[in-house]
Specification:
The complex is a heterodimer of chains A (435) and B (256). Chain A has 435 residues and is α/β, with parallel strands linked by helices. In chain A, 20% of the residues lie in helices and 38% in strands. Classes of the chains: A alpha/beta (435), B alpha/beta (256).
Chain lengths: 435, 256
Amino acid sequence: MITQVSTSLYHQLLAVFEEGLTSKGHLEQVVTLRKEAFARFKESGFPTTKMEDWKYTNLLPIVSQQYLLHDNIPGKSVDLKKAFIPGLDAYQLVLVNGHYRADLSDSITEDGVFISPIEDIVDNASFLKHFAQYADKTDNPLVALNTALFGGGLFIHIGKHVTLEKSIQLIHVTSTSEALFNQTRNLVVLERNAEAELIESFITNDDGTGLNNIVSEIVLEENARLQHYYLQIANEQSRYLNHTEIQQARHSLYNNYNCSFPGAQFIRNNINVRQNDSAVESHLYGITLTAKDQFVDNHTIMDHRMPNCESYEWYKNITQNTSTAVFNGKIFVREDAQKTNAFQQNNNMLIGEKSVVYTKPQLEIFADDVKCSHGCTMGQFDDDALFYLRARGVGEISARVLLIHAFAFDVTEKFSNIKVKAYVDRLIEQGLVID
Amino acid sequence: MLSIKNLQASVDDKQILKGLNLEVKAGEVHAIMGPNGSGKSTLASVLAGREAFEVTCGEATLDGKDLLELSPEDRAREGLFLAFQYPVEIPGVSNINFLKTAVNEIRAYKGLAPMEAKEFLKRVKEKQKLVEFDAKLANRSLNEGFSGGEKKRNEIFQLAMLEPKLAILDETDSGLDIDALRIVANGVNHLRSENNAFILITHYQRLLEYIVPDYVHVLYNGRIVKSGTKELALELEEKGYDWLKESVDTEESAAL
């Protein structure tokens, strides 16, 4: 069923694939996966608001225009200043319009670490084992599209027992003067007992419209530990469709800190965590501060499949002006997932009188011996608290900043990296619209 | 120091203060008593600048500065302090960070550089001791999970830290047990000096046994209807407010 025969981008993409633009030098296995994925996308088309998961998230205006499908100036110089995090000592990896730029990136020489542009991988057992095995199992048409037609991205492989000495900061730069559609594909594998911190910053150069469709698959093998940050600070011309699929094996730990700030006009994040074995722990934290007519949608799935696992999820939205935030938190507790301990909390502060929040906790529990709790609050600025602070001599602006930090505190205090925490606190402060 | 003349104020179009006059000089402690609904807390809120209250007439000056024209923060920076009847819990704002911000914003207003961290901490320790305020509480989120007594002590701790010219204590004694009351009163007595002044708003004579006022006023129906010395408080404790209410009500109806 093709519901959007009229969308320009859809037809552009159809034409491109049928011209046979894919499968340069890849193994037959990968080529087959990409062809199958394309067939799926061709059939479904872009998601529409008729789909429950896209009810509030209308892609139609975004995909109804023409885009360049390839960066017209590869190798252009870019400005990375905006992604700078004071005091952070990290390996810097840079993707410009989805393509890895070795000239802007640090080489990581630690033993057991393998990093390669995804399009260059021809034969790698770990890559072939995991590539397109997880995200494509979901019904997100954007994943199928990405699998079929991604242009660049990274394969990051951390070998067993390796603890990375420094964090990796992966900077996604969108740089274009014309409307450009980027599709980036990442695969991150942490082998047994590996440990890493991955900080992804999303920034923009130039003022052309950039539509980014980014899919990341993350595999944590036994006892692997990953701290994973999303820092979304792109400008108003940019649009992001992110899908992150995490696979966790026994005793592994995955922490995601998903932060969005005023800027990018349209953001949809899917973060799906699959606990595939027992004794797994996952934490999902989110802080979203929106302004103007921004739209930020966070859809998470916490999938408890096996017994004795824990998950902890806390998302905070602060909406200003006429912006919109969406939170949809699905928690599955499958039949086998006895003794699950799952917690979910979503708090919203609507500052803009005309701002909107849609929130939906969605718990589906099929096991009977579990502990699951969820809560959701909607509120505004606490005028009593504001007056209390002002009555002590704290100016109105400082008082508002203090209160916003306080609201975000439950989430920001959980940040494992204090440099990133301080940076995020500052971005919150800078993102406040004081009139 | 504080001069209030013919102050009239209303909330939601209902007039609460109906021409209140009060003069407070440096070094003095004034107690304002009165039955429920007489306008005591309204007076405190109006002076501190709470937005819900509308001043319809009259003036209030602090050392010549027109308070009613200033924002709540500027009133505080000019040296006014209100100890809240119901201190607000603000999870996520640390007591100490908040105080540091307050101290430094008040200093900036006076053209002073921010206080050195070392000096600030020294002052914190000194004042904590003065008001017997647990250091653990000082490091927690502002009033979060504090008992009623701890919240009131935190108000006095803040008072000690900010060293205002004029402090208004709005029913600081309500909900306090004897020990907490003694601690709060000791704190205030230590802070009393010839350069500052206090207004104690209270229902009970009990507080005035610990903090001895120079003047006692009775507020009724939005006006001060009787003023005297500390003996007036004792008289009120003994007789209640009814005898005063009656004479005032008779006077008012006679005037009509």
